[in-house]
Amino acid sequence: MQFVLRHERKNTLRFAALESEVGRRIRERHPELKSVDSMIWVDHPDEAAEQVTIRSDAGMRIAQYLGGPWRLASGGRAVPRVLRDAVYDLVARHRHRFVSAADHCYIPPPALRARFL
Q: Is the pTM of this model over 0.85?
């Protein structure tokens, strides 16, 4: 999330925790997400055309959203999903080693708080 906030140009994304009211409603509409504890990307939320993607597919969707050089990650679709998701899980499990993350939750500055649902 912090990576996206640093690199996005459009400033149109909204964020919600899976445990939030918004996250709960999305998971109710998509029972297949019941056991998902990963990133979820939602296109067209609260519409008939609502679509959800998870794990590496969601990561590539974010790369597409970010545009520029990040869009190259979309080429990962050539790799079978089972392999992409294995790499995604490995990175997710060790993400704190890859970035200088603090031991606490991110608290968005006032200018960004409206983007958190």
A: no
